[in-house]
């Protein structure tokens, strides 16, 4: 298994600003994932972040809006840029130890409210 | 796009009763997973069942998989108030090695 922490746990931001969310894993992992969970909804994959390569974004998500860094095998950041109230969600990072379609281990999430 | 659909969307039962949640999917899978989420926090992996398996147990959890019907069920026996949470199925596709797709989830309330 893997233990994942996220910072911040929650934040309230003004529209037009940006927020960077950090994800730290207690072991080295190749694949990290960023999800968005809008209020009352399921998880939607934003992007897959592999160390040493550019993040792979899912349809509907673009790098300018959600830039991702993956500087090493235990850490990643997701930035939510130029925020609007529609960005109010829980943002979750996860890792997989055996391939992206296998068991994923999740961080506690970051609750974002944009006013 | 979401591959899985779950029903019911919401389920309320008395403590001690069994809870059954269902998940249907559309395309061929390598595996199907169930996760629990308490009060909007991170998800916890419960169980993974592979496409060549039909049933799997873990403690009070029993998962079945019917690939001919493209459906799975999660049974929680002798439910407890602490089982109150949202439950999501997620499918690992045969055609994609690098991600899973989550269903919409079932919200379970266990009344003491």
Residue stretches of chain A low in confidence (pLDDT < 50, at least 5 long) are none
Q: What is the β-strand count of chain A?
A: 11
CATH fold title of chain B: Immunoglobulin-like
Radius of gyration of chain A: 13 Å
Number of domains of chain A: 1
The helix fraction of chain A, in percent, is: under 10%
Helix/strand class of chain B: mainly beta
CATH architecture of chain A: Sandwich
Structural class of chain A: mainly beta
CATH-level-4 superfamily name of chain A: Immunoglobulins
Backbone shape of chain B: globular
Characterise the protein shown here.
The complex is a heterodimer of chains A (115) and B (112). Chain A is mostly beta strands and 115 residues long. Chain A has one domain: Sandwich (Immunoglobulin-like), CATH 2.60.40.10. In chain A, 0% of the residues lie in helices and 51% in strands. In chain A, strands 2, 4, 5, 6, 9, 10 and 11 form a seven-stranded mixed beta sheet that branches. Chain A has a four-stranded antiparallel beta sheet with strand order 1-3-8-7, with no helix packed on it. In chain A, β9 (89-96) and β10 (104-106) form a beta hairpin. Chain A is globular and about 40 Å long. The N and C termini of chain A lie far apart (37 Å). The relative contact order of chain A is 0.33. With 112 residues, chain B is an all-beta fold. Chain B is 0% helix and 60% strand. Chain B has no helices and eleven strands. In chain B, strands 2, 4, 5, 9, 10 and 11 form a six-stranded mixed beta sheet that branches. A five-stranded antiparallel beta sheet of chain B has the order 1-3-8-7-6, with no helix packed on it. The termini of chain B are far apart.
